[in-house]
Each structure stands twice: as C-alpha cells, then as structure tokens.
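Input.
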Amino acid sequence: MVKVTMLARVMDGLPLAEGLDDGRDVQDVEYYKQQIKALFKNLSKGQNDPSRMSVESGPYIFHYIIEGPVCYLTMCDRAYPKKLAFQYLEDLKNEFERVNGNQIETAARPYAFIKFDTFIQRTKKLYQDTRTQRNISKLNDELYEVHQIMTRNVQEVLGVGEKLDQVSQMSSRLTSESRIYADKAKDLNRQALIRKWAPVAIVIGVVVLLFWVKKKIW
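Output.
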C-alpha cells in the first residue's frame, strides 16, 4: 500500500506538498520522513542522480521520479507493485504541473502547495487496492515498463558511512534546539514587557498611594 507521499523542489530540497493523512499506520513514520528529506537534500546536490529510482529502507521502499524542477516521492510496502507506484507518481506529476507549474520556481516557503493534499488523498485511494479492475489493467499495460528503474539501498544513496540513526539524532537535536530557542524567546519577551511597563506601574502605584494618604489626612 501507499504509505507516504511528498513533493519537493529539486534545486534546494524545499518541501512543496505532502499527504497530510499519510503514515498513520506506520510505526516510526517521522523517522522515515526524515530519510525522505535527507534524500531530497541529497538530490539537491545535483550529482546526476537517475530521474527515476527505487530506494529500499527496512520494510518499505521509496519510489521517486524527477520531472522538471520537482521530485515526486512515495513510500510503499515492499510488496506493493512497482509499476502501480510509478503510475501513481505520474498522475500526481501531471496534475501538479497543470495546476501549479508556473509557481514552482518562485515558491519561497515550505509546503506552499499544501492544498494539493486533496488530490493526493483522492488519487491514493484509487491505487490502494491492487485487485481492482482499474489497477489490474494498469499492471497489464505493456507500454509502461519499470524493469529498468534502478533499485538501491537508502544507506548507499545517502552516502557511504552515513548512518541513518545520525539522521534521526540530528532531527531530535534540531527539535530540542528549536524548543530551547522558543523558551528563550518567551523569556526575552517577558523581560521586555517588564522593562516597558514597570515604570508605569510604579508611577500609578505612587499616585494611588498619594491619593490614599491625602484622603486619610482630609
């Protein structure tokens, strides 16, 4: 079955869209998503990677195609037919280019095309059951061949000696650092508010005190 779907810009690895409901039944789904992002980063280095490839990772396999400035990637069970996975990506590519083709190069923030999730979810449902007549016909389509698409291991693709647990540790470290930064930012904002309003509070307190004293005297 199709588990996760992500789209990214090739030149810088910027995430463009993602299936928002993806991976709910995948244990350690964030770990695999970090692998996908590492793959995108690797592709952005421009090392003449194939435009179509399958990358094995544990019980799953990543299939991707690169068309123009975009990489379309899906993570599936290993048993899921390779031909269906690539036809699924072709459907996403055709629609994404039709709807967003002239905005891809100028996208400045991650997930700028998050609304594309609607099409991802609708299309994914069509490909989930490999036994439907529609998908059986696609599997029997001799005009669409995937035998020559290379299959490699994710460790090999990400680089010799690069351990995948380092990718996971880096993600955890970045998450921890971002939390620390957020806490520090809150403290700084709190201190700034105190410095700004403390003199006002003191003046008001003095005025109230003088008013009270004056009232007591009279």
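The mean pLDDT is 84.
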